[in-house]
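Example 3.2
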Amino acid sequence: MSGFVRPAGTGDTYDFDGAVFTMKATGEHTEGRVSVMEQAAPVGLVVAPHTHEGEDEMFHVLAGRVGGRCGDDEFTADTGDFIFLPRDIEHSLWVLGDEPVRMLTICGPPKFDALVREQGRRRG
């Protein structure tokens, strides 16, 4: 495996579950270590409660504000905040306020990126 740079504005892009995901590094790129996607979520988006079996999910909020729940704990995260959602625990997210949200979505080991590519609608 070798290192790489994914220039700004590049990466395969998919519409999935009401958001837009741009692949920055998939499990295929990282030998199954991690995936990184840039996510754009519109005002009003609510991601229903779900569980990632055997996969931790993390978010770095680049713009906007989100609310969420992980297990019994509810949280809010603003621009610059980092969210860690451990594997096998039900969680949900929703966009707060009147501006869209941009986040880096990081998963390890990577499984969610494959789901987005398989079930999402590819742009371009």
